[in-house]
Design brief:
single chain; 121 residues; mainly alpha; two-stranded antiparallel sheet
Length: 121
Amino acid sequence: MDQLAAMRAFVRVVEAGTFTRAASSLALPKATISKLIAGLEAHIRTKLLNRTTRRVIVTPDGAAYYERVVRLLTELEELDGSMSLSQASPHGRLRIDVSASCTSVQLPLCFWVLQIAPLPG
């Protein structure tokens, strides 16, 4: 079982109120959502949702689990986002291979420009 996918499906079911709407918003078959939730409940050995033919009712344990899972998924998304940002900025050593005629005029000019307008990051 993909626990992370099951947690995301659980959150969508709670927020959408039905398996059908959750499945639609996640672009997954309703049966897949049902299997993910059943697998999650079996994994944590706790009933999270009471299902009727018309709606889904969150159990008290399910409500507590939902609050913690929402925080966990939010933190995970922030972590992923911060890692993406750190890789987007250039960093490291830059080596430049230039001819001797370039080094006397153009290279000092490049260093001067970098001093007054440093690269972001």
